[in-house]
Amino acid sequence: MKTSIRYCFIFLGLMAHSLLSAEQYELKSDEVSQSHGAEARVEAGVRFEPVHWFDIHIEESARFSFDGTIKSYSKLQLNFPFSRYFGMGLEYAFIVKHSDEKNTQKHRVGGYAELTFHPGRWKISLKERPLLTMRFDSINSAEKNKYDWKLRSKLAVQYNVPGKPVKPYIAFELENTLNAKAITGYVYDEQTATTTTYDFKGNYINKIRPEIGVKYTPRKRHHFNFFYKFDTSFDRSYNITHKSSKLEVTRSKSFTHIFGVTYTFDAGKK
């Protein structure tokens, strides 16, 4: 009996060692990159309200980057405004990225919970959005996740100008990774016969987005939103060479000026 237990422990130890070793690669490089860019967004949507506690929002969005990349978003959002202070919702987006190299497709599902306060002519809201982005193309699962979980937190302050159909606002959004890819690299020093391990693990703040804009309602059912965002994005990407299984790490930081306009037609109740 003792011998069987001893063999079980040895087997489990070997399995654990093989699993840990499978995620370790010789570190070839660890680089830091930085880029600047600009993007223009044009969005149009329609909103239906079957009942007073439920509405449907459909939207198409085109995003033009100055580097030549174009992204299209087809969105469906189901909103449940339980009261003027609290609401929840579900959303889905089909994302297509068009570039010179290749076109990629992603699916994004998520939900949100929003608290809203109305002190006088002000509107203060806090929205939390867990999002799951899925991709089904062929990728190296050791380098990238097919399913990425992220959490977006947005605080917005809006003012209703008396006697005018405009509502200026400011907002601040943070995006956090929830299942960032964890990978381990090592460097072996032949002179000292020592191995140094580098753990690229842990979740981190992926985006920081301050925003300023104005909502304009020229007529009852027609709503415009003109906005500017300054997007600061952080990312870690991995490349594992196929022949020698060496790890290349890139820590990238990008700064993007985003200018956009959104039009929504409010169809109201059916």
Produce the secondary structure layout.
Blueprint: H1 2-22, E1 24-51, E2 54-65, E3 70-80, E4 86-98, E5 104-117, E6 122-134, E7 147-159, E8 166-177, E9 183-189, E10 194-200, E11 205-219, E12 222-240, E13 246-269
Parallel strand pairs: 1-9, 1-13
Antiparallel strand pairs: 1-2, 2-3, 3-4, 4-5, 5-6, 6-7, 7-8, 8-11, 9-10, 11-12, 12-13
Overview of the structural elements:
The chain is mainly β. Helices cover 8% and strands 70% of the residues. The protein is built from 1 helix and 13 strands. The chain has one helix at residues 2-22; strands at 24-51, 54-65, 70-80, 86-98, 104-117, 122-134, 147-159, 166-177, 183-189, 194-200, 205-219, 222-240, 246-269. Strands 1-2-3-4-5-6-7-8-11-12-13 form an 11-stranded mixed barrel. A hairpin with a 5-residue loop joins strand 3 (70-80) and strand 4 (86-98). It is elongated, with a radius of gyration of 24 Å.
What structural keywords apply?
disordered N terminus; eleven-stranded mixed barrel; 270 residues; 1 helix; single chain; mainly beta
The Cα radius of gyration reads 24 Å
Using the alpha-carbon principal axes, give the shape: elongated
Distance between the termini: 73 Å
**Low-pLDDT residue intervals, each spanning 5 or more residues:** 1-22
- Helix count equals 1
- Give the strand tally: 13
User: Averaging pLDDT over every residue, what do you get?
Assistant: 88
What structural category do the secondary elements indicate? mainly beta
The spatial strand order of the largest sheet comes to 1-2-3-4-5-6-7-8-11-12-13
Along the chain, the helix and strand elements come as HEEEEEEEEEEEEE
Please estimate the helix content: under 10%
Sheet having the most strands = 11 strands, mixed, barrel
Question: What amount of the residues lies in strands?
Answer: over 45%
